[in-house]
Design a protein that fits this description.
Layout lengths: L4 E4 L7 H12 L4 E3 L6 E5 L3 H11 L8 E3 L3 H7 L5 H10 L4 E6 L14 E5 L4 H10 L3 E2 L14 H8 L5 E4 L10 E4 L6 E4 L5 H8 L32 E5 L4 H9 L4 E6 L9 E6 L3 H16 L5 E5 L8 H8 L2
Parallel strand pairs: 1-8, 2-8, 4-6, 5-9, 11-14, 12-13, 12-14
Antiparallel strand pairs: 2-3, 3-7, 4-7, 5-6, 9-10
The chain binds threonylcarbamoyladenylate (TXA) and magnesium ion.
């Protein structure tokens, strides 16, 4: 076990002394959990095989699941990419820094452990002052998956990181809740037609408005879990609370009534309805606006998961493109 140092840091004006310590820890091969605009990341020097191995160990992450490398800017990204296609040029101009991860052919500078031995690397520049300050101070690319144990819910607050990883990381920077609340969109631009690997905060429509049609091979808003997934890390159960999750079309009132009569302790993620009191049921009303919903989504699930319930009932959002990322996560819980 490590002694994890938890430091509060101002998301609007990160203290240079704290940033310098975090950067130095990373340069020495340590692990630093830090906020991004999506979720908290678990960072290590992407060019240091041993440091990256510590990420896999801390998360219990399978070695065949590659990591996203975070970079300060376009120039640092291009140093790690063997090719920088036209689509990447245009997407970076529009979305970086921001929640869009681009998969490109890698150079030999990127260690095999980062990419799970594959020929491509996933790159993104995060739109968060703390993350960007660390990248600038450290002067290295930072490999950072979400700062949770493998297959669990991503953390949107420092306390979520603490619950999963305290004692396994050197430093945790607490900058309060992350604004986005959901992971970045992962887009493979290494193939002639860009392919959406993971829907996220940047929608397919926003991407297509910049580069034209993209492939979305395995994605749908259907609730079924039986379609094969193409990205190495996107197979099967993922992003899960420990508590069983049941998704409901429309209003879950009847199901809540039925299960609570069976004596089950329930969580109810309710989509913008008036609060209805059922004894012993924890009801959370969610915004109908997708961005506001996404910002709260994991935090609500973390809370309900910690409440010792038998089941969490989730009312499914509309089956429209803008809700694709939420449907994707729910499908794999
Ligand atoms: O918002 C985010 O993306 C957060 C923050 C911390 O940046 N990071 C994150 O990382 O969600 P992680 O490791 O939890 O998810 C990365 C996803 C995985 O599904 C992984 O399989 C995929 O990106 N990925 C990484 N490298 C890849 C590659 N070379 N080819 C295809 N998929 C890749
Ligand atoms: Mg993750």
């Amino acid at each position: 076990m490590l002694a994890t140092t938890v430091c509060s840091i101002d998301p609007g004006a990160p203290a240079p002394a704290i940033i310098a310590t975090a950067a130095q820890t990373l340069r020495r091969g340590g692990l630093v959990a830090f906020p991004t605009e999506t979720v908290y990341g678990l960072g290590a020097n992407a060019l240091d095989t041993q440091a990256v191995a510590r990420i896999f160990a801390a998360k219990g992450r399978p070695a065949n699941n590659p990591l996203i490398v975070h970079v300060a800017d376009l120039e640092s990204a291009r140093c790690l990419a063997a090719e920088w296609p036209d689509a990447a040029v245009r997407l970076v101009e529009r979305f970086w820094p921001g929640p869009l991860t681009l998969v490109v052919k890698k150079t030999a500078a990127v260690p095999a452990i980062v990419t799970a031995d594959g020929p491509t690397v996933a790159l993104r520049s995060p739109a968060h002052k703390v993350a960007l300050a660390i990248l600038a101070a450290a002067g290295i690319p930072i490999a950072a998956p979400s700062a949770n144990r493998s297959s669990r819910l991503s953390p949107t607050r420092a306390e979520h990181v603490r619950r999963d990883l305290e004692g396994h990381i050197d430093i945790l920077l607490d900058a309060g809740p992350t604004a986005g609340g959901l992971e970045s969109t992962v887009l493979d631009v290494s193939t002639p037609t860009p392919r959406l690997l993971r829907p996220g905060l940047v929608s397919p429509a926003e991407i297509e408005a910049v580069i034209g049609p993209i492939e979305r091979p395995h994605l749908s808003t259907s609730a079924s879990n039986d379609q094969p997934l193409r990205s190495p890390g996107l197979i099967g159960r993922h992003y899960s609370p420990r508590t069983r999750v049941e998704c409901i079309e429309g209003n879950a009132c009847r199901r809540v009534d039925e299960l609570s009569h069976q004596g089950l302790r329930l969580g109810w993620i309710n989509l913008g309805e008036e609060k209805i009191d059922f004894p012993g049921v924890i009801c959370r009303i969610m915004p109908r606006d997708v961005r506001r919903y996404a910002a709260e989504f994991y935090a609500v699930l973390h809370d309900l998961d910690a409440a010792g319930l038998d089941c969490i009932l989730v009312e499914l959002p509309p089956r429209t493109d803008e809700w694709l990322a939420i449907h994707d996560r729910l499908r794999r819980m």
